[in-house]
Fold:
Amino acid sequence: MNPHRKLLSGIAFGLSASLSLPAFAQNGDACQPFTVVSDGSDRTVDYIDNGAPGPSAGDQRIGYRSLADQDGNPVGHYRWIGTVLNQPGDDGTVGESVYEYIMALGDGHIGYHRLVQTDSPAQDTSGVAWDTTQSAIVTGGTGAYAFAHGTVTISRDDMVVTMEFDIACDD
Structure:
């Protein structure tokens, strides 16, 4: 097994407890394109001030959101940690952070990463930290999503986040 996939499996296990949710995908069709939605009603975001006191590189946002399918049925949740590379400036410069995600569905986990560009400081946990449609890279998975690879298109409308996964799971 690829050592990166082993690491991802360990991270997924450490970040997310097992769920007693029904399997999201049926009849072995898990590892193909699908869409999940988080309406923001079940979410937690925390800010960790690392490094120099106050807003600075190394600060982190850590969060959780529940997920539903497009019909509103609960299917799991995702957790993330975003590490600030640079804060947005008063002069209009865009801040950047690297985000790592683990999504837990009833039949496995999917990991993905992305670079987030924002004009919202990391310590503001009241809303979503970005306001444009962005893409992420799927880095692997477990269970029905073992060997997952592909992309995720992530968009938002106020507090509603929609994630469109374009994935495959061949090894």
Summary: Residues 1-28 have pLDDT under 50 and may be disordered. Helices lie at 3-15.
